[in-house]
Amino acid sequence: MSSALRARNRTGLIKLSSLLVAALLAATLLSVGAPARADNMRESEYWLDSLGVTEAHKTTKGEGVKVAVIDTGIDTTHPDLKGAVVGGADMSGSGGEKGNKPIGVMSEHGTLVATLLAGRGNNKGEIKRIKSENERLKAAWEKAKKHAEEEDEDIPEEPEYEKVPKLKSGKDGVLGVAPAADLLSVSLWMGEGNPSKIPVETQIPRAVKWAVDSGAKVINMSLGSTSPAWPESWDDAFKYAEDHDVVIVAAAGNRSGGMSQVGAPATIPGVLTVAGVDTSGKASQDSSTEGISIGVAAPAEQLVGGLPDDGYARWSGTSGAAPLVAGVAALIRSQYPEMKAPAVINRILKTAKDTGAPGVDNLYGYGIIDAQAAVTATVPAVSENPLGTISEWIRVHRRNTEKTTDTPAPGVSMEKSDLKQVAAPKPILPDDSAPALQPVLIVGGGVLLLLVLIAGSTQTLVRRRREKAAAQLGSASLSSLQVPDQSDGRDLFDEIPEEEK
């Protein structure tokens, strides 16, 4: 390997170790105000019809398929996830043993992702209705009883009350794309402040291997970095998943998060990378990015999702687009259990609705995902992944020879789109007197990026958490960031500078 390439790779790894983030590249929570309610979540899920998910559910709901969510941990007590999470583990050294403790600055992120992927909804509305009717009948009977006693009349028989059902899946709350799939929660600590000091670039390959060994047939990764390169230590883990017939889905990232190109792990060959579109099906200005590694696109704006402590939020980002696609992969693997991962990915690509420039492009990939077609259409079988393989990439690019020449990092588009880029302010230099988690920008190899996720207390819509959020505002330095006015179409991460030129 040439000295120039070695130097560039070392620089890339330094950047990656300091720039790897979770929802920073992909998630933005919106609409601070009245708490989002379970009874209006389902009607907000416009993608269930527009992507053909409702029709696909007539064929399969993802039964028998394990999907690993490598994220910030899932709150398994959320009513929409009752019975959905069947296992898990923590790779951070600071989370719950089974990955069921939301951790990190944006601990809500994993639960948001999980509900979009495999939320089962809940029957709280039915429970409330039955309880209310029973209380009405009881009150009416007690009134009639009192009157009869006062008038020395026969006391009427107490009415039979309808049995109140137990909490289960139902018509309220969030319905995921694959509501019958089984989830594995693999928790990571994103950003800085991990008490165990285990860097996230070490956690990720461990997470991938654990997911594979635990039977996952699909892995969702709504996380990434601003660098298209990845540590060489990741090679074996992603090759391990490839060798074990696992589909990996990753978020492409957001311009509003300071990204103009797709970053790792979404640049790794063979990974199905998901870009974001708005409610009209156009490439999202803020909640997406571009790159030649993009496979398909899915809704990334005006999303909804579940939050820890029985809450809900409206949010945006390719962090939300990715689990919609991972859910479709689970539907396919349920319907065609013998189908290999390359054919599953090919089926998703070939049935996508071509959008933008004719053919494959660096904004939509093959197009917007179509769940119904992906599950039911006739698609010729393939044996090779159309998105390439990490095995071949390793053979070509990890050769230890001085003859190797510099090549562009995978997934970096050499094309220019007409999509207007999001402007970013000038970098803010760190203050030596600032506390360790001060939300300033860290300089590393000429690249500036916020290392920690903005505290969810100023962003989320969650029932019974306003008091908790107020306390966080007073105690956490991260919470000093104020939520800007959303009316101008910009979001929280517009304030993060892009790489200096």
UniProtKB/TrEMBL annotation:
Pfam families: Peptidase_S8
Active site (record annotation): D71, H109, S319
PROSITE patterns: SUBTILASE, SUBTILASE_ASP, SUBTILASE_SER
SUPFAM superfamilies: Subtilisin-like
Chain ranges of the Peptidase S8/S53 domain: 62-367
Keyword Transferase attributed: no
Signal sequence bounds: 1-38
Low complexity bias (residue ranges): 472-482
UniProt-listed InterPro entries: Peptidase_S8/S53_dom (IPR000209), Peptidase_S8/S53_dom_sf (IPR036852), Peptidase_S8_Asp-AS (IPR023827), Peptidase_S8_Ser-AS (IPR023828), Peptidase_S8_subtilisin-like (IPR050131), Peptidase_S8_subtilisin-rel (IPR015500)
Gene3D superfamilies per UniProt: Peptidase S8/S53 domain
Assigned keywords, A-Z: Hydrolase, Membrane, Protease, Serine protease, Signal, Transmembrane, Transmembrane helix
PANTHER family with a match to the protein in the record: CEREVISIN-RELATED, PEPTIDASE S8
Family: Belongs to the peptidase S8 family.
Name the record gives this protein: Peptidase S8/S53 domain-containing protein
Species in which this protein is naturally found: Glutamicibacter nicotianae (Arthrobacter nicotianae)
